[in-house]
């Protein structure tokens, strides 16, 4: 990997790791639904700008409905789940739990798509689960019902990412393919459609005191939508084109490091042995699942 692509990889990891910081800032103030909805609206706007600047034709070739459904699964539900978790969990927790995405892909592939479950993959899933248990049970925040629900929300999000990888192959790749930037735009539109009724309901039942929202919260939303979503999509697809999907997926190992780093630097979140042990086990699990000899399933997205 040359210097330019390594820089892209590090920037992508910093952006996706930073998304957990910005959700942690915005979600407790705005609520989970407005945070997730605002992110996908801004992400859609940013991707529309990218498509316009690159003069890409808005041609979905009969796959528009598929991209909308993929967006609901791959962006709408996960962003909402992570925003819900951000009201409860430190940013570093969510960033580490996000790394279970490939493990979810292995489990879903074996259960629903007939993928072979080899011993390294099975061991990887088990080791990853142990990492989640250690992080949850021995971390710096008390184990409560709310904490547990936050962890469950993160795992629901990563399960959606894992499922979306297989559905993308079935609905897009095996039907002739589609420009990845158009898929990204369609998926964000799908997330907007999914979250819109929830946003309307939430606004009606839990109105936000918008005048009291600080500039920090608004800036966090802008950065999360335009940089951590729109720009991150462009970087990710550029990396896939330049170095291939396997090397691009090494960003999965780096996201937790940046997520924990940003949380500690900006929000003074504690870093403990549980972060190292739990995160280390999840990293080992990722190596077992993603090592070249073990890869046969379509690689699930790692977007955050």
From TrEMBL:
<feature type="domain" description="EamA">
    <location>
        <begin position="148"/>
        <end position="290"/>
    </location>
</feature>
<feature type="domain" description="EamA">
    <location>
        <begin position="9"/>
        <end position="136"/>
    </location>
</feature>
<keyword id="KW-1133">Transmembrane helix</keyword>
<dbReference type="InterPro" id="IPR050638">
    <property type="entry name" value="AA-Vitamin_Transporters"/>
</dbReference>
<feature type="transmembrane region" description="Helical">
    <location>
        <begin position="180"/>
        <end position="201"/>
    </location>
</feature>
<protein>
    <submittedName>
        <fullName>Drug/metabolite transporter (DMT)-like permease</fullName>
    </submittedName>
</protein>
<keyword id="KW-0812">Transmembrane</keyword>
<feature type="transmembrane region" description="Helical">
    <location>
        <begin position="148"/>
        <end position="168"/>
    </location>
</feature>
<dbReference type="Pfam" id="PF00892">
    <property type="entry name" value="EamA"/>
</dbReference>
<feature type="transmembrane region" description="Helical">
    <location>
        <begin position="95"/>
        <end position="113"/>
    </location>
</feature>
<feature type="transmembrane region" description="Helical">
    <location>
        <begin position="41"/>
        <end position="60"/>
    </location>
</feature>
<feature type="transmembrane region" description="Helical">
    <location>
        <begin position="273"/>
        <end position="290"/>
    </location>
</feature>
<keyword id="KW-0472">Membrane</keyword>
<dbReference type="InterPro" id="IPR000620">
    <property type="entry name" value="EamA_dom"/>
</dbReference>
<feature type="transmembrane region" description="Helical">
    <location>
        <begin position="213"/>
        <end position="236"/>
    </location>
</feature>
<dbReference type="InterPro" id="IPR037185">
    <property type="entry name" value="EmrE-like"/>
</dbReference>
<feature type="transmembrane region" description="Helical">
    <location>
        <begin position="67"/>
        <end position="89"/>
    </location>
</feature>
<feature type="transmembrane region" description="Helical">
    <location>
        <begin position="248"/>
        <end position="267"/>
    </location>
</feature>
<feature type="transmembrane region" description="Helical">
    <location>
        <begin position="122"/>
        <end position="142"/>
    </location>
</feature>
């Amino acid at each position: 990997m040359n210097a330019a692509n390594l820089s892209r990889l590090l920037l992508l990891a910093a952006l996706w790791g930073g998304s957990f910081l910005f959700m942690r800032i915005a979600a407790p103030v705005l609520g989970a639904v407005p945070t997730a909805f605002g992110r996908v609206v801004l992400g859609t706007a940013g991707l529309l700008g990218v498509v316009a600047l690159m003069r890409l034709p808005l041609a979905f070739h009969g796959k528009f409905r598929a991209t909308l459904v993929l967006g609901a699964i791959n962006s709408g539900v996960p962003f909402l789940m992570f925003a819900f978790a951000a009201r409860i969990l430190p940013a570093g927790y969510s960033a580490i739990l996000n790394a279970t995405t490939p493990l979810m892909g292995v489990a879903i592939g074996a259960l629903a798509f007939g993928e072979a479950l080899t011993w390294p993959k099975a061991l990887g899933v088990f080791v990853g689960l142990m990492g989640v248990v250690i992080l949850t049970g021995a971390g710096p925040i008390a184990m409560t019902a709310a904490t547990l629900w936050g962890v469950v929300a993160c795992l629901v999000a990563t399960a959606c990412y894992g499922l979306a990888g297989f559905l993308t192959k079935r609905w897009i790749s095996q039907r002739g393919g589609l420009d990845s930037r158009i898929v990204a735009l369609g998926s964000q539109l799908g997330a907007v459609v999914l979250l819109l009724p929830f946003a309307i309901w939430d606004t009606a039942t839990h109105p936000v005191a918008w005048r009291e929202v600080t500039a920090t919260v608004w800036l966090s939303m802008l950065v999360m939508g335009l940089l951590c979503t729109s720009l991150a999509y462009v970087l990710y697809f550029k990396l896939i084109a330049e170095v291939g999907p396997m090397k691009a997926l090494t960003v999965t190992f780096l996201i937790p490091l940046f997520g924990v780093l940003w949380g500690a630097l900006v929000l003074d979140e504690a870093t403990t042995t549980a972060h190292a042990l739990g995160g280390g086990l999840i990293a080992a699990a990722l190596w077992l699942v993603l090592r070249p000899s073990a890869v046969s399933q379509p690689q699930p997205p790692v977007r955050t």
